[in-house]
What we know:
Blueprint: E1 7-11, H1 17-27, E2 31-36, H2 46-50, E3 58-61, H3 67-77, E4 81-84, H4 91-96, H5 98-118, E5 124-130, H6 141-151, H7 177-196, E6 199-205, E7 208-209, H8 218-230, E8 237-239, E9 245-246, E10 249-250, H9 251-264, E11 270-273, E12 279-280, H10 281-291, E13 296-301, E14 307-309, E15 314-315, E16 318-319, E17 322-323, E18 326-327, H11 328-334, E19 346-351, E20 354-360, H12 378-381, H13 391-401
Parallel strand pairs: 1-2, 1-4, 2-3, 4-5, 5-6, 6-11, 7-10, 8-20
Antiparallel strand pairs: 9-12, 13-14, 13-19, 15-18, 16-17, 19-20
Helix pairs in contact: 1-9, 3-5, 5-7, 8-10, 10-13
Amino acid sequence: MHWNNKNVLITGVTGFVGPYLAKQLIDQNANVFGLIRRRADGANSKNITDQSIQSNINLIEGDLTDISSLAQAIDQSNPDYIFHLAAQSFVARSFENSMETQQINCLGTSNLLEALRIKDSDAKTIFAGSSEEYGLVISSHKHLQEAQKEYGVIFPPVEDIPEVPIKETNPLRPMSPYAVSKVYGDFLMRNYYHSYGLDTVVSRAFNHEGAGRGLMFVTSVITNQIMKLKFKEIKDISIGNINAFRDWSHVTDIVNGYLLLAEKGVSGEVYNQGSMRTNSVLSYILLGLEQAGWEVNKIKTMNNKKIVENPTENDNSEIFGIKFDKTKVDQLMLEDQIDFQIEDKGIIVETDKGDIPVNFDPNRFRPAEVPILLADTNKIQQLGCEIEYSLSDVIRDQLNYFIKKENRL
């Protein structure tokens, strides 16, 4: 597709993904407009500054909760394409302030669609949904028993085990106010396609990371602390649930997917975006330590004497019907041979340069956890989507970002 002179409006342009997307479009000679909320200090977003695009982007002041400002933004940008990325996207914050999340994510999306309908806009809109919409995904019979014990009712009911890799047709069992808000936006986008003929496509992107990821997100929590260890600013790592498995992609792969959906995505359809691999939070820590210069030899719990030798040893064996790179400890966890609970207090990582304590912080555990996410991306692959970056690439870029002292807070 040729983006030359196409008008593109990006909501959430100052967030994590927005500047990466804007830069790609600017490099392809698109006219990029970005919706921003007024800043009291008048300063540019750090992420926009980091991408060096501040002089090439047309910033429009607006607020998702104000439909009039959205109508004005549509008038000003006259968009051929809209990427609706703006959201309150921090899961933990959505538990603390659910109403804020619903106001921004639900009402904001409704306002945008209504403004497009009222303006008779024919812009093609790509909605940034989320893998969090799938929520409680059951990976084994043991997992089902544990989930039934913890939650009682599971709805929609489980019909097939395992429910991974996750297809677009998987049941939606959102486990946070954030996830619920994304389900709302997802369905509303498709409703406006069916009811009013708006040109909408839904992307359910699985976790995507890279340089500039917000400090509250777990991958930045990990890599930030690793670089602080490297510079001897701290002596240990503090983390929440290390059993959670996520399908982590590089942000550039997800941005390329958004652009592909704008070009070839079928209106009214939903597409997963991800890497078709899943790795634990624990492995993200261990692989991050290795990328930063430590050789990981063994891990052991502070309580209960759980031990894994050579935990980062690569394992490419088949699980859930597919093969992907994972660590030895990932494989053990996926096979239900080991897990790590808050009662373990933490783990000791034995390395060639000494022991590194990883402490479990009860305050970092969510009220309701999504245990595993692993995308089935065959649908978007049929459009030509390819994954270019490995998990090591993702971790490396985040570590390099935190080499700068001003980025380590």
